[in-house]
Amino acid sequence: MDELKDLDRVANSVRHAKRVLVITGAGISADSGLPTYRGIGGLYNDNDTEEGMPIEVALSGDVMRQRPDITWKHLAQIEANCRHARPNRAHEVIAQLQEIAPTTVLTQNIDGFHRAAGSQDLIEMHGTLFEIHCPACGYAEEVMDYSDITRFPPLCPDCGNGLRPSVVLFGEQLPGAAIRRLEEVLDEGYDVVFSIGTTSVFPYIAQPFAVAGRIGALAIEVNPSTTGVSRFADVLWRCGAAVAMEQLWERLASLR
Ligand SMILES: [Zn+2]
Predict the structure, then answer these.
(1) Architecture of domain 7-34+87-126+174-255
(2) CB within 5 A of ion ligand 1: which residues?
(3) Angle at 190 between CA 186 and CA 195, to 5 degrees
(4) I want to staple 17 with a disulfide (CB 3.0 to 4.6 A). Which of 41, 164, 191, 247 is the partner?
(5) Other residues' Cβ atoms within 10 Å of the Cβ of residue 46
(6) pLDDT of residue 54
(7) 133 is an active site residue
């Protein structure tokens, strides 16, 4: 494909950045073959589930408390979709940026790909499918996948209550540790901010990009379509995430 515009400008800004902030949404995982979820429920379009409730209800904190078997069943379907998918070149390049500048990743995704690719300073704002925990006693464990889970919900080995995935369900609050880390990054500032594959419908996803001009950060949007934050971008790369980030990496490599 043609060279991306302003590639040198972006690459030089990254090389000299005191901090890079990378914001990602479902679009980055489209190159890994995952459906682009709307929230965590987009897999289901607008149809009700077979239990006769909208997916936003099935995947809510209330139903997880009252009928965890229903919520678990649908989360397990999402996990099954992720199971044979892998991080793509965009996830890898974002992890490699750590070699060049301190890099924070803020993601809405629950697919675990940034973690798998090696990003260290990672804010998983909606949690991850690959940790399960006990709301009653705090027991937690990481899981590779759900293939060994034979009962929904699986029971806590410590106290016998039902376990649940550490994802943010509809109607639930965002994780406190993630909010605190994001506030630190916003306080300390950043020189370059990417918005990759997200429609930025959530204010905590849109705002760090929207304020870039005010804090003097270079704002790059990577998305095939126009989004709610496109007007805040200094540079628009209208293509897929893997293609864009590979070109950026090659340019960074040539400059070193
Ligand atoms: Zn427990």
Answers:
(1) 3-Layer(aba) Sandwich (3.40)
(2) 134, 136-137, 139, 156, 158-159, 161
(3) 85
(4) 191
(5) 9
(6) 86
(7) no
